[in-house]
User: What shape does this take?
Amino acid sequence: MSHSISATEKIYVFNALVKASEDVVPGEIVKGSVYFDTTQPNLNLQEITVKVESLEYHVSPPTASANAADDAVADAANVKNANSDHHHKGFLDFFKRHGKAPGLSLNIASHVQNDSNKFELVVPITTAPAIINAGRHEYPFEVTIPTNIPVTSAVQKNADDVVLLLYRYHAVIKIEGATEDGEAFHVLHVLAK
Assistant: This one.
């Protein structure tokens, strides 16, 4: 579905992107950059921030229609647990070993709104408003992953359900007068030392 921009919308940031290390350990200093394009001259850039934030998801077993595709992916990745009737247990084993998903399609039943492992670290990239022109922009950043941050994990809650604790980078670019902030996301895996 495409979104057409109305005459009243003022969207100034396009192609926003965050590039930084995907696999990190607690205490590590991560360097990265936020990239974005603008098409208008003389824009008043208010601020750019990067957040390292957690997301917690409740995951249930795949539906019967997904089983064939899941079997093929699991067998190819050699992660299927032969003693398991549930495909997500193979996912869980792989996730615990490698800190990332093998590509199995699972039903993400819900994003946990009041997750117990909620984490958010906001890193300001710009310190004062600035005038920027049309073109491609790059703003480097550096963030230290806290030493006490829980690692990316999958926790078996019962025979059928898993809770995933995941992380991401979330960049926000604010331009004065824009009807929408520019945003970009990038995956982050916090691994055990």
